[in-house]
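Thread: quick sanity check before group meeting

JM: Hey all, I'm pulling together slides for Thursday and realized we never actually wrote out the predicted structure for the chain we discussed last week. Dropping the sequence here so it's in one place. If anyone has concerns about the input, flag it before I start.
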Amino acid sequence: MFPIRDHNPSLGTPFVTWALIAANIAVWLLMLPAFSDDAAMFRLLGDYGAIPARLSAGEGYHTLLTSMFMHGGLLHLAGNMVFLWVFGDNLEEQLGHLGFLAFYIAAGLGAVFGQYIAAPLSPIPMVGASGAIAGVMGGYLLLFPRARVDVLFIFGIFFRILPIPAWVVLGIWFAIQIIAGLAADLQAGGVAYWAHAGGFAVGLLWVIPVWLRRGGPAFWARTHGHPAHPTARYAASSIPRVRRKRDGDHS
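JM (edit): ok, ran it. Output follows.
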């Protein structure tokens, strides 16, 4: 279940969303040589990843920022950037460029705090933009709950794209983070589910005043829970038909 686009993209230019995507890609490219050197990677994660035990000792506060631009691999980076691309532009349009940048950083800090509260003595580094992007998803959910999001469903070798309301996609995603967070072994590493939940909560809370200034429920009634843009028209992909050969047909 993977969102690939929404049906009401922003009419403006999401400069900050583009810049954040570019910054994440640039940092990953800078990290690339370390992926083939375990010692170099351990040093990199130790210096710039957010380690709860280190923060508890009063050290490494710079990692609160640096960790949200680091990724553990290409799929980690690509997945996060697609989510940011899908949900970031409309939120940037609502908050303004500088407002969206402040929001993004605050959500990223909230993500680190969420994981830190869950395991303040963990020696495992946290890296990734997932928590900050979870904040973007929380803000999007409040402002545009009925926006249609195209979701790619993968069932083994079969896949299908279905348009689903944002509140369903993001609600299910958030529920998964809570359930998985409760079941996770925080000392074993893996996905930082509580970071996702923390970022999502900060994003949702940050946008509440914006939603209220726009009228709260009246804003939903006025926009029908969608971004106030015409629905995008996406061309349906076509699969060419291959003519079946008959016996004796050598053409």
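AS: nice. Residues 2-223 form a domain with the Rhomboid-like fold fold (CATH 1.20.1540.10). The two ends are 42 Å apart (CA to CA).
JM: adding both to the slides.
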